[in-house]
Structures are given as C-alpha cells and as structure tokens.
C-alpha cells in the first residue's frame, strides 16, 4: 500500500480578479505616465516641425512616448483591462494638466490602450515575454496611426499614410514595447514589484 503524496510544485491557479494593490499601482503608473504625456505634448510641436518638413508622415516616429503607459501597466499588473485602464487614465491626467489636444486626448488614450490590450488578450494574458511586449507596442502604434489618419489627417495621400503608419508603429515597438519591458525588468531588480508576478518571475531568472 502506497500513500499518495500531493505535489508541492503545483503552480497556483491564475486569477484575473484585480486586487487593491493592482488598482493602486496601475493608478500610480497612469498618473506618472500622464505627466510624461503632457510634458511630451509641449516638446512635440517644435521637434515635429523639422521632422515633418524633412519627410511628411515621419513625425509618427515621435508618437512613441504617448504609447507606453498601456503596455507598461499590463506588463506589471498582468490582468485583463490593465492596458486600457493605464493608458486611458494617463490620457485623462494629460488632458487635466492642459494638453493642446484637449478632450480628444481621451479618445487617443482609449484607442492606444485597446491596441495593446488586444495583443495581450490574444496571448490569453499568459505570455509576458519581450516579443509579446514588442507586438503590444506595435498594436498601440498601429491603432493610434489609424485614428490619427481618420481624425487628424483626413484625406491624406497614400504615401503619407504609409509613412505615418510605419513610423508610428516602429515608435510603438521601441518606446512602448521595448521601453516598457526594460522598465519592468529594472523595477523588478529593485524589489519594487515583489508583490506582482512580474517581479517574482524576473527574480526567478536571476
């Protein structure tokens, strides 16, 4: 007769329910991101003018700093809705601080967050590796480029639309995808994310 011994290596079941700490940290990330959004909005006009003059549509390469909040929030919280929540709240903060685009910033935040959220959902909120973050950044950039071409650049020439979409998507990959992933890795090494799976998984690789 042999006794059955329960395995102690079984992984705890994943839960998609938001904890209080999830809401608090996502909100802090969103507020900090919103301040960055607002500051970048001030710097964007003088920087984008010569870029646009050099090659119309290439100004999309400067959109990345507005795309990172949703990817960053999702990589930390790892729960459904994190990308939309973080990006949208960041847009609200930016609008309240006085962005030049006013309340239309909220629409951008929703669309950008949704672009990233769809990617994480396609991976069933179970894969948080670098390549998924890069795809999510691309998703945010692609979603924003479509919105901008409809709302800000209606009737744009095909060559402009192609350049703008490609440059915005690349910017999303670099700033939102790679940038957010690197930030999470850096935070995890400090122990700041010890209450999150993002922090524990990074520590396990050390």
How would you describe this protein?
The chain has helices at residues 20-54, 68-77, 82-97, 104-122, 130-151, 158-190, 197-204. α6 packs across α7. Helix content is 69%, strand content 0%. It has one domain (20-199). It is mainly alpha-helical and 206 residues long. The protein is globular and about 45 Å long.
State the main characteristics.
206 residues; mainly alpha; disordered N terminus; ECF transporter S component; transmembrane; membrane; transmembrane helix
Provide a concise account of the structure shown.
The chain is an all-alpha fold and 206 residues long. The chain has helices at 20-54, 68-77, 82-97, 104-122, 130-151, 158-190, 197-204.
Rounded to the nearest angstrom, the distance between the terminal CA atoms is 42 Å
The overall average pLDDT, rounded, is 90
Helical/strand content category: mainly alpha
Query: Taking Cα atoms only, what radius of gyration do you get, to the nearest Å?
Result: 19 Å
Q: How is the biggest beta sheet arranged?
A: none
Tell me the count of domains: 1
Number of helices: 7
């Amino acid at each position: 007769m042999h006794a059955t011994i329960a395995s102690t290596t079984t992984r705890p079941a994943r839960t998609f329910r938001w904890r209080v700490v999830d809401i608090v940290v996502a909100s802090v990330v969103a507020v900090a991101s919103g301040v960055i959004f607002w500051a970048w909005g001030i710097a964007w006009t003088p920087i984008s003018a010569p870029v646009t003059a050099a090659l119309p549509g290439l100004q999309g390469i400067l959109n990345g700093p507005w795309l990172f909040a949703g990817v960053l929030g999702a990589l930390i919280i790892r729960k459904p809705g994190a990308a939309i929540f973080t990006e949208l709240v960041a847009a609200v903060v930016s609008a309240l601080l006085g962005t030049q685009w006013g309340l239309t910033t909220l629409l951008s935040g929703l669309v950008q967050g949704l672009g990233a959220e769809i990617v994480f959902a396609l991976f069933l909120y179970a894969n948080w590796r670098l390549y998924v973050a890069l795809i999510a950044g691309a998703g945010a950039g692609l979603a924003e480029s479509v919105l901008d071409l409809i709302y800000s650049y209606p009737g744009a020439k095909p060559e402009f639309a192609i350049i703008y979409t490609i440059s915005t998507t690349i910017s999303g990959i670099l700033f939102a995808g790679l940038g957010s992933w690197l930030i999470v890795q850096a935070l995890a090494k400090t122990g700041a994310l010890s209450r999150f799976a993002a922090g524990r998984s990074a520590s396990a690789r050390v």
